[in-house]
Every structure is written in C-alpha cells, then in structure tokens.
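Exercise 3.2. Students should predict the tertiary structure of the chain below and write it as structure tokens, then compare their answer with the key that follows.

Predict this chain's 3D structure.
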Amino acid sequence: MFHEVVADGAAGAESDADEVTPATMLAAFETLVSEAAAEVGRDRIDEETGVDGAAVDAALDGDAAGLRLEDGAAIVAGPTDRDGAAIVAEIRDHLLMGMAAAVLDVDSIAAAIDADLTGQEVQQALEGRAAMTLGQLAEIMAVIERRKP
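Answer key:
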C-alpha cells in the first residue's frame, strides 16, 4: 500500500528517481489515507481501528503528515481485506530492503532528512520501537528511492 506509492511516485517523476521528494511522497500518502478514510467513513474507523479522533479528522482532511504510520495503515486497511499490522510490517520490510539495495545505513538517512532524528531514532522507527509519522516515512522513503541503483 504505502510502499506501492513509492513506485507510483517514481513513475510520476518521469522515471527519474532523483525527482522523488518527501513532498511528493507525502502528498501521495495523504491522498491514499484521505481516500480510504472517506470510503470507510468516520463511524467505521472509530469502531474498527481505535485510531484517535484527531487523527481521523486529520486523515479525512488530507493532512496526514503527523499521523502515526500505524494509524495510517489501519485507516488504509479499512476498505480492503488487509490487516493494518500486516501493512506496517510490509512497509518496514520494504524500507529495509531498499536500504540494503541503496547501501544506506541509519546514520546516512538521518543526515539526509529534515526530520530531527538521530541515526538511533531512525533505526528505532524502522524497527517499530519508536513511533514514525507519515511525514517521516515520506522523508525516509524519498532518501532511499533517490539512492537506489
């Protein structure tokens, strides 16, 4: 789901991975989340996901930069038969495989993003030991995509 947006974002950037930016990734994530939220509806999201009301409002408004990855995945999973936790695991796998292909470590990623995260904090976010927002995910994914061969 979210990692598929990366492929679409790269293709939308005229097939030039150097053009994949955090802003384009975030815009695609926000569209994905807001469309899923609108399709599912606030009541069903409240009943089935446990996502905080303010986060649901942000998703419906298309302002998902501060939305936690887990909340975004739960919302995106709503109109499908997928589980939000499985989507999060897929994203993390995609990030780690991308890092390996791009020969990137967490310190290199931390130095290349605007988010105020250390290498250790990036690692914790990638492993799920610390929260990661969709804005941070967009920044990390953009760095990885620009560096992939």
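Discussion points: The chain has a mean pLDDT of 89. The CA atoms of residues 36 and 76 lie 5 Å apart.
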